[in-house]
Amino acid sequence: EIKSLGQGHPGSLWHTGRWNQIPGIASQSQREPLCPCAEDESGAVVVQTAPGKVVTHRGGTITLPCRYHYDVSAHDLDEIRLKWTKVVDPMSFVDVFVAMGKEHRAFGSYRGRTALQEDGAGDASLVIRNVTLQDYGRYECEVTNELEDDTGMVKLDLEGVIFPYHPRLGRYTLNFHEAQEACLEQDGILASYDQLHTAWLEGMDWCNAGWLEDGSVQYPISRPRDECGRKDTPVGVRNYGYRHKDDEQYDAFCFTSNLNGRVYFLKTYRKLSYPEALQACKKNGAQVAKVGQLYAAWKIQLLDKCEAGWVEDGSIRYPIVNPRSRCGGREPGVRNLGFPDKKYKLFGVYCYKKAGEGSPEKGGGKPGKWRPLQV
């Protein structure tokens, strides 16, 4: 893996092993733009990208590494076209960034957030700032001269957390498109198989099948039992295959990443109904936390609170980092008490406040640094 260096840094650490096509390049500190190999008399372009993946988090800055070699005597630099695209599926691509000579252009949501690194001749690396959840995925770096071209692939991964989700209507009520929307509404996106598999390796066990971003339906089992496909079946990510996106209904596996703010349990003198909880967070200069925000606070900011509270979708949840007997079991996680009556049932509330909007529980004040919350 190649991890980002955080905000303000490009985050491109060049892998010290072999490159995809050309051996011998050990690190980014080697500024020599051409590979240590014989000149290609045909003038062909050869592209190098980092093996494995680059890793950052939402809001971070990352560089997608890509360098190229070509016969400088055969082509002028201004004749070289650099193009970055995102691979949506094997037959679908989204334009990200194009450069030819001094002309540069970014597309769609990448406008204003992307630029070439331009670390000497032969560098086609792309810098992406303020990374979003939607930036996750595979990118293709294509370098073209008048007659020849070559491409390389870079995978962008995000640090974050998977959370299973179903709405108030109950389990298995979402088709694929509704699952996509449900994740977005709760500050997430549909998870990829790789993300779900990583969560399973870390111990995730969930007995309900959910949609993934590729249109497949799967679920992770770490403890086989009869109610989850029989006790004698092996552990693993179980796969229902690709299902009909409009007609079939399942839960969703959502993914979210780093928060640009903080989730906190609001201290109030009494328990609240859901409408009262909305107003209490608003009065405190915040909003009721979404499910994904609560999961991110639990996983990344280590929020640990043995107090049940409202979250945005009308469910009651609470995050436990350090399990204890009075707090719902032996495993860490976000406990879910379901969807009670919003008008008559009374609980606490989890609020979310964006960074720079004042200190939690004071409803204003000067913005300052916030630290991971550990209770």
UniProtKB/TrEMBL annotation:
<keyword id="KW-0373">Hyaluronic acid</keyword>
<dbReference type="GO" id="GO:0001501">
    <property type="term" value="P:skeletal system development"/>
</dbReference>
<dbReference type="InterPro" id="IPR007110">
    <property type="entry name" value="Ig-like_dom"/>
</dbReference>
<comment type="similarity">
    <text>Belongs to the HAPLN family.</text>
</comment>
<keyword id="KW-1015">Disulfide bond</keyword>
<dbReference type="GO" id="GO:0005615">
    <property type="term" value="C:extracellular space"/>
</dbReference>
<dbReference type="InterPro" id="IPR016186">
    <property type="entry name" value="C-type_lectin-like/link_sf"/>
</dbReference>
<feature type="domain" description="Ig-like">
    <location>
        <begin position="36"/>
        <end position="159"/>
    </location>
</feature>
<dbReference type="Pfam" id="PF00193">
    <property type="entry name" value="Xlink"/>
</dbReference>
<dbReference type="InterPro" id="IPR050691">
    <property type="entry name" value="Hyaluronan_bind_Proteoglycan"/>
</dbReference>
<feature type="disulfide bond">
    <location>
        <begin position="306"/>
        <end position="327"/>
    </location>
</feature>
<dbReference type="GO" id="GO:0002052">
    <property type="term" value="P:positive regulation of neuroblast proliferation"/>
</dbReference>
<keyword id="KW-0272">Extracellular matrix</keyword>
<dbReference type="InterPro" id="IPR000538">
    <property type="entry name" value="Link_dom"/>
</dbReference>
<dbReference type="GO" id="GO:0072534">
    <property type="term" value="C:perineuronal net"/>
</dbReference>
<dbReference type="InterPro" id="IPR003598">
    <property type="entry name" value="Ig_sub2"/>
</dbReference>
<comment type="function">
    <text>Essential for the proper localization of brevican (BCAN), mainly as a perineuronal nets (PNNs)-type deposition in the brainstem and cerebellum thereby playing a key role in the formation and structural organization of PNNs. Contributes to the formation and transmission of inhibitory GABAergic synapses between Purkinje cells and deep cerebellar nuclei neurons.</text>
</comment>
<dbReference type="InterPro" id="IPR016187">
    <property type="entry name" value="CTDL_fold"/>
</dbReference>
<feature type="domain" description="Link">
    <location>
        <begin position="161"/>
        <end position="256"/>
    </location>
</feature>
<keyword id="KW-0964">Secreted</keyword>
<protein>
    <recommendedName>
        <fullName>Hyaluronan and proteoglycan link protein 4</fullName>
    </recommendedName>
</protein>
<dbReference type="GO" id="GO:0045202">
    <property type="term" value="C:synapse"/>
</dbReference>
<keyword id="KW-0732">Signal</keyword>
<dbReference type="Pfam" id="PF07686">
    <property type="entry name" value="V-set"/>
</dbReference>
<dbReference type="GO" id="GO:0007417">
    <property type="term" value="P:central nervous system development"/>
</dbReference>
<feature type="domain" description="Link">
    <location>
        <begin position="261"/>
        <end position="353"/>
    </location>
</feature>
<dbReference type="InterPro" id="IPR036179">
    <property type="entry name" value="Ig-like_dom_sf"/>
</dbReference>
<dbReference type="GO" id="GO:0010001">
    <property type="term" value="P:glial cell differentiation"/>
</dbReference>
<dbReference type="GO" id="GO:0005540">
    <property type="term" value="F:hyaluronic acid binding"/>
</dbReference>
<keyword id="KW-0325">Glycoprotein</keyword>
<keyword id="KW-0393">Immunoglobulin domain</keyword>
<dbReference type="InterPro" id="IPR013783">
    <property type="entry name" value="Ig-like_fold"/>
</dbReference>
<keyword id="KW-0677">Repeat</keyword>
<dbReference type="InterPro" id="IPR013106">
    <property type="entry name" value="Ig_V-set"/>
</dbReference>
<dbReference type="InterPro" id="IPR003599">
    <property type="entry name" value="Ig_sub"/>
</dbReference>
<feature type="disulfide bond">
    <location>
        <begin position="207"/>
        <end position="228"/>
    </location>
</feature>
<dbReference type="GO" id="GO:0007155">
    <property type="term" value="P:cell adhesion"/>
</dbReference>
